[in-house]
């Protein structure tokens, strides 16, 4: 059975912790009953309650003492309520803290606007020295957790909630390298970020097989800059598909980093989703769905993005 992102995180971290007693698990009242890590390592698990900023500050002290603290809570609370502590402890002092942020985007749809997170990547990306990852599927999530443990850098890992996906095949073991899922022979390339963006791009591929598709797992500024040469091998017109707002989104940064290319965004717009629903219902309210993406693709093709049929 394929696990969801947050369940994969707990499972992989618990396995790694069997051989590494530096790993600690902190939760802000989101662990629930029978948390896998807590059950196996009760003396290394801390439920911090609804105290996100304090959790980051405490993690900074633990990191300074040589531990590797993983802190997890809702993406919107992890990134926005804790922003000042993230800036100082992770960005400025580069403490080895790993934030795991489920409920990214509008995956907690039924909880309403307070629990939606369409700004988190933009906020965290303004702070230097933090690796930002949006894995797709179970195996990529496991790779990112393993890479976070072995890396001395602070991490922010954005996940969804309950949906589970099979990761795209990789020829290498590193999620840091952009994954070329399909290489077309035109100049239009889809860049997918996160689970829902990648799902949409996979479906577009079925209808438009000559359009290239590259999945980006790591999307902090340094990682994007290091990916540019490889991206430019797949076109000169890029459409970034990301469950985020335009402001602070990956497309807005790539447009600056790739001035000789055309970069467009397919995002969740500026609306506030004002009603609760499932993840897919909330995405449809924001027009982040297949029909809207296909229309965007058709418009780009009509404006001159070439696809050699």
From TrEMBL:
<feature type="domain" description="Transketolase-like pyrimidine-binding">
    <location>
        <begin position="3"/>
        <end position="166"/>
    </location>
</feature>
<dbReference type="InterPro" id="IPR051157">
    <property type="entry name" value="PDH/Transketolase"/>
</dbReference>
<dbReference type="InterPro" id="IPR005475">
    <property type="entry name" value="Transketolase-like_Pyr-bd"/>
</dbReference>
<protein>
    <submittedName>
        <fullName>Transketolase</fullName>
    </submittedName>
</protein>
<dbReference type="Pfam" id="PF02779">
    <property type="entry name" value="Transket_pyr"/>
</dbReference>
<dbReference type="InterPro" id="IPR029061">
    <property type="entry name" value="THDP-binding"/>
</dbReference>
């Amino acid at each position: 059975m394929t696990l969801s992102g947050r369940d994969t995180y707990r499972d992989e971290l618990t396995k790694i912790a069997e051989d590494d007693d530096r790993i600690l698990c902190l939760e802000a009242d989101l662990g629930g009953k029978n948390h896998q890590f807590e059950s196996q390592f009760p003396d290394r698990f801390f439920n911090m309650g609804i105290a996100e900023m304090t959790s980051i500050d405490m993690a900074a002290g633990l990191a300074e003492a040589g531990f590797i603290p993983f802190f997890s809570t809702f993406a919107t609370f992890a990134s926005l309520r804790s922003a000042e502590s993230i800036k100082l402890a992770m960005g400025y002092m580069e403490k080895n803290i790993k934030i795991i942020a489920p409920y990214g985007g509008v995956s907690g749809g039924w909880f309403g606007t307070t629990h939606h997170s369409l700004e988190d990547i933009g906020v965290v990306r303004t702070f230097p020295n933090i690796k930002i990852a949006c894995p797709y599927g179970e195996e990529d999530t496991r790779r990112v957790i393993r890479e976070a443990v072995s890396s001395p850098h602070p991490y922010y890992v954005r996940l969804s909630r309950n949906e589970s996906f099979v990761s795209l095949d990789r020829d290498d073991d590193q999620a840091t390298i952009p994954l070329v899922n399909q290489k077309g022979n035109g100049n239009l390339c889809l860049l997918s970020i996160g689970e829902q963006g990648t799902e949409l791009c996979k479906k577009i591929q079925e209808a438009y097989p000559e359009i290239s598709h590259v999945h980006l797992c790591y999307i902090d500024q340094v990682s994007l800059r290091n990916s540019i040469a490889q991206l430019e091998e797949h076109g000169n017109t890029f459409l970034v598909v990301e469950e985020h707002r335009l402001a602070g989104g990956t497309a807005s940064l790539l447009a600056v980093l790739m001035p000789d290319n055309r970069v467009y965004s397919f995002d969740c717009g500026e609306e506030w989703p004002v009603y609760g629903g499932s993840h897919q219902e909330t995405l449809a309210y924001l027009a982040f769905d297949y029909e809207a993406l296909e229309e965007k693709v058709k418009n780009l093709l009509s404006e001159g993005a070439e696809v050699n049929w």
